[in-house]
Amino acid sequence: MLEIFLLALALAADAFAAAIGLGATHQNEAKSQFLKMALLIGLYFGVAQGLMPLIGYALGFTMLGWLADGASWIAFLILVALGIKMLYESRSVNDDDMRINLSHRTLLSLAIATSIDAMAAGFTLNLLSINAYLACLIIALTTAILSILGAYIGQKSGTWLGSWAEALGGLVLIAIGINMVI
């Protein structure tokens, strides 16, 4: 069980960092609107983090080498592209207009980008003597909880991060992407 929880924490780290950046750009949001947004962030990130290892588990041993290597590069490209976009937008945004439009498409893109490495981790579930479905549920719940918490941390810390919140989020995404291929 400890193994599953540590895996869940490691896989949730990307989503947690992204949620902090998203929360920081919505610091002036009404309480009810922010709660809805934080729950959506948790839902999207949690479901993606729970499904990706299940996909990796289902694909099994036959494709382990090919997809494990490819998943890192796909995640790298998506995260770096999103990071560069956030950096660009952070320089062209007024202090009064720092909010990122959190459409379902944006949330889905971020959720997939931050969970692609979880697919590769799903391959390892075949090697461990654990219930893969239980592991994926724990990963999903851990990610959802940490993402909601991250959004709130970001909202509160946004006051001292100021206009650099989006740039910081972009840099974090780029760093995570680079870390995927190192």
UniProtKB/TrEMBL annotation:
Organism: Psychrobacter urativorans
Compartment(s): Cell membrane
GO (cellular component) term, any one: plasma membrane
Protein name as annotated: Putative manganese efflux pump MntP
Gene name tied to this protein: mntP
GO molecular function: manganese ion transmembrane transporter activity
Keyword set, alphabetical order: Cell membrane, Ion transport, Manganese, Membrane, Transmembrane, Transmembrane helix, Transport
Domain of life: Bacteria
Main location: membrane
Pfam families, A to Z: Mntp (PF02659)
Membrane spanning stretches: 41-59, 66-87, 107-125, 132-154, 160-181
Protein purpose: Probably functions as a manganese efflux pump.
PANTHER family in UniProt: MANGANESE EFFLUX PUMP MNTP-RELATED
